Amino acid sequence: MITTRSKQLGFFEPLEVLETEYQNSEILRKLRTMKNSYSGFRRIRGDGNCYYRALGFAFLESGGPEAALGLLRRLEESQNSDEHKTLHVALTEILSSCAGENGQNDTNENLNKHPLLRNKECDKYLRALYERFLVDSSLDKCLVSVVRRFVGQCVTETQNDRIQDFGTLAELLTMALGHESVEAFLEQEVLKDGVEAMDVVQIVAPKALQCQTHILQLDRNLAENGMPTIYHYPETSSAGADEKACWPDVTLLFKPGHYDILYPSEIAKCIVEVQEHGLLKKLREPWTCVVCMADETTEESIQRPWPCEHGICQPCQDGMREAGQSLDLCPGGCSKIPIFT
Q1: DSSP for 192-256, written as a single string
Q2: How many angstroms separate the Cα of 109 from the Cα of each of 104, 105, 269, 298?
Q3: Which residues of 273-300 are buried (b: 16+ CB within 10 A; e: fewer)?
Q4: How many C-alpha atoms does 42 have within 13 Å on its Cβ side?
Q5: Beta carbons within 8 Å of 22's beta carbon, 6+ residues apart
Q6: How far is it between the farthest Cα atoms of the chain?
């Protein structure tokens, strides 16, 4: 369930939630083991773009203002589409919310910390990021398009690089995977909206976006230590240690056929604090009165007295009070105490 206004990215949820959604004993065992290192996840809409959406948003979120600034500079060099320009404007506005107040202290000890823990003003950045991407679905579409284009550009530039035992990337795409040409692969599999990411994209995409990606595969396969298989990209030999040292870490949860964002425990607290500081009510869907079912377009039109997804318009709230009906519980049947009276 994704209840944000954009309907593309969900809220942060504790990892325990997933335990209520599975019955397979091996999956449950893996989830229990994962809780030693990971605290939560974010649902991603599954429309064929989930890998690109998850990777792009997690890059901006996990990398903090530094990642957004780096992407902004790259967009300035390649504003060749409306999506590039729209994302450029949005990132500029997001960064302006914490400009000149990053409060960083670049000691050796501090540089070893996660970007979200290193930057004292990251809460302002994250709040601005959420207020845009968890609300505006068109901005999400721009991000997906830009990530796809960056991946396509990287494939073109690195097609002669060797990929482990498969020869060059071009040979892997044409001889092993059967694509007519590199260009045909890009047109059919990468640049086309709604097409799921092939395995080879997982190799190229982190280099294209300049991040280190860790993918945990949650499936029914037996795991000796109870931990899901973890895939790391780019592999050690494909990028220099010095180059990767400054790349942000992105962690994705792969449930066969779908990707969500996974959060290590060290940054989960930061994410939760920002999310719960007045953002849940502001970004939550639906914008519909649970009593009269009238659709409203502004936050002020619908009040949310309960910590569930339902809201109520002022006329219905007044009517219930005049009729002596209690607002202690949601009229939609949710057993939730009110946030305010």
Answers
A1: STTPPPPHHHHHHHHHHHT-EEEEEE-SSS--TTS--EEEEES-GGGS-HHHHHTSPEEEEEEET
A2: 12, 9, 20, 45
A3: ebbeeebbeebbebebbbbeeeeeeeee
A4: 29
A5: 28, 31
A6: 76
State pTM to two decimals: 0.81
Residues β-bridged to residue 54: none
Q: Does the N-terminal peptide bond of residue 286 adopt cis geometry, omega within 30 degrees of 0?
A: yes
φ/ψ of 43, rounded to 5, equals -70, 145
- Which residues lie below 8 Å from residue 207, measured CB to CB, with a gap of 6+? 154, 158, 234, 238, 239
- Evaluate whether the domain defined by 9-281 bears CATH number 2.40.160.60: no
φ/ψ region of 90 (left if φ > 0, alpha if ψ in -120 to 50, else beta) reads alpha
Structure tokens at 2: 């994704």
Q: pLDDT digit string (tens) for 99-119?
A: 754 444 443 444 445 566 556
Domain boundaries along the sequence of the chain: 9-281, 286-341
Nearest to 66, CA basis, from 121, 107, 139, 11: 121
For residue range 318-331, list pLDDT tens digits in order. 898 899 888 888 88
Q: Where are the beta strands (DSSP E) in the chain?
A: 9-14, 38-44, 212-217, 229-233, 249-255, 258-264, 302-303, 312-313
Contact 277, 302 (CB under 8 A): no
pLDDT at 241 over 90: no
Q: Which two tokens stand for residue 90?
A: 């949005």
CA dihedral 156, 162, 164, 165 (to 10 degrees): 110
Residue 73 pLDDT > 80, yes or no? yes
